[in-house]
Amino acid sequence: MLAETGGTRLELTGAFNFRDLGGYKTKSGDTLQKGLLFRSDDLWRLSDSDILRLKGLGINSVIDLRSEIETTTRGIFPIEKFPTQYIHIALADVSADPELVRSNDDYLFERYQEILVTSQAKIAKVITLLADKDNLPAVFHCAAGKDRTGIIAALVLGVLGVDDETVIMDYAKTRSAMKAFSSWLENAYPEIAAIISEMPPVLFSSEPQTMKNTLDWISDKFGSIEKYLLSSGVTRTSIARLHEELLI
């Protein structure tokens, strides 16, 4: 049930992978309501016009999935200009020695398994926050909006009943966003762009097969996304609230 009506990217000057997860259909025929749940890359670069756009969306919560080092060195969502609720829940990072990445074609898939295992309690906290209507509309983000953000998006979509093909498609949409980010970086910070260009391409990829392998792994190891979340500490009440608050 491939749905092309969801995951619309918002055109912002300081973020390149800011997307509304609304519009996706579930296998039972429900629709994820638009304007309630967003995924994104770094939000510290937002311009004043971007901030006005987010205020217009009524964003009530910003969940930052980056590490302490990332928030310290790069900065955080500009809460001084937009005093919304900022919540920092650091999931395991996927950075690594470039040589290790070059020798491992399954690097991202293995790192996603690592995040899902070592950050289970934190993932449960994120999902529980998103199930609370007082926190909506909400945006969750990491650096590129690809890995940590991609995992949370996949878990939410999956537990709501969106089919695997659509979840995989949503993950793969980051490819166009990464191209936009690269163009911006070359103009704004050419020295950083030059360094990144020497790094293994897999670090910046979002190939459909990576997410398919991840979903298959969750199914094989836990039985389903719902069972994974329950084993992580998410309650059945929170899962029911996700359905009640996000689906129409």
Could you characterize the architecture of this molecule?
The model has no long low-confidence stretch (mean pLDDT 91). This protein has one domain (8-246): Alpha-Beta Complex (Protein-Tyrosine Phosphatase, Chain A), CATH 3.90.190. Helix 4 (107-118) packs across helix 10 and helix 6 (148-160) packs antiparallel against helix 7. A 6-stranded mixed beta sheet has the order 1-2-3-6-4-5, covered by helices on one side. By secondary structure, the chain is an alpha/beta fold. Strand 4 (61-64), helix 2 and strand 5 (85-88) form a beta-alpha-beta unit. The chain has 12 helices and 6 strands.
What would the keywords be for this entry?
6 strands; 6-stranded mixed sheet; single chain; 248 residues; Protein-Tyrosine Phosphatase, Chain A; alpha/beta
CATH class: Alpha Beta
The CATH H-level superfamily is: Protein tyrosine phosphatase superfamily
Number of strands: 6
Q: What is the tally of helical segments?
A: 12
| Amount of helix | 40-55%
Q: Let me know the average pLDDT.
A: 91
Shape: globular
Major sheet description:
6 strands, mixed
Tell me the span between the first and last alpha carbons.
17 Å
According to CATH, what is the topology?
Answer: Protein-Tyrosine Phosphatase, Chain A
Rg value:
17 Å
Strand-residue proportion: 5-15%
In N-to-C order, the SSE pattern is: EEEHEHEHHHEHHHHHHH
CATH architectural arrangement: Alpha-Beta Complex
Number of domains: 1
Structural class estimated from helices and strands: alpha/beta
Low-confidence stretches: none
> Strand order across the biggest sheet?
1-2-3-6-4-5
